[in-house]
Design goal:
binds flavin-adenine dinucleotide; mainly alpha; about 150 residues; FAD/NAD(P)-binding domain; single chain
């Protein structure tokens, strides 16, 4: 309890009780199909990624937004909600983007786990390069926020 209070700098006062510490592996997973037999997967049910850049929720929000848009579009053109062409459009629009983000996070994970000095040096040069080029930095930030994808 003392260690926990110290770790969060006493911001919540003294911790008086905590449960047993549990751990679970952080695994990247991706469903082959997002849509099957009238069942639609969104969010972590469809994909889970390493949380190092805090992208999991954004991907889920984008899934939900695109699914809502496609269902709405389907209704407008007189299709059933579960029409495979309606749900298929959702899968096509989201799968590639989710996969791209998953690959990127996996790449970052390996890059930041790398201990070899030349790789660390190159990584730091690259990161400060991106930090200094505002067009690239803003573009990446907009993508990370789910504003452009
Ligand atoms: C350690 C860690 C840190 C993270 N940090 C970030 C971060 O900083 N930023 C970020 O964007 N993302 C982060 N994520 C990822 C983020 O938590 C997930 O992407 C997000 O919570 C997924 O939302 P979801 O609604 O799809 O699924 P979940 O949040 O998993 O919600 C699913 C819900 O369904 C319920 N449920 C499951 N089975 C059943 C059932 N049979 N019947 C009824 N209910 C059921 C569960 O109890 C749960 O409440 C992190 C993940 C981890 C593990």
């Amino acid at each position: 309890m003392y260690e926990l209070t110290k770790a969060i700098e006493g911001r919540l006062g003294n911790i008086e009780w905590c449960d047993k510490r549990l751990t679970f592996p952080l695994r990247q997973r991706h469903s082959v199909d997002y849509v099957k037999n009238n069942v639609v997967l969104i969010g972590d049910a469809a994909h889970s990624i390493h949380p190092l850049a805090g992208q999991g929720v954004n991907l889920g929000f984008l899934d939900a937004a695109v699914l809502a848009r496609e269902l709405h579009h389907g209704i407008e053109v007189g299709r059933e909600l579960a029409d495979p062409s309606v749900l298929g459009r959702y899968q096509r629009k989201r799968k590639g983007h989710n996969l791209g983000m998953m690959w990127l996070m996996e790449g970052f994970k390996h890059l930041f786990a790398e201990q070899a000095l030349p790789i660390r040096w190159l990584r730091n040069i690259g990161m400060s390069g991106v930090d200094n080029i505002s067009v690239v930095k803003n573009n990446l930030a907009r993508r990370a926020m789910g504003l452009d994808w």
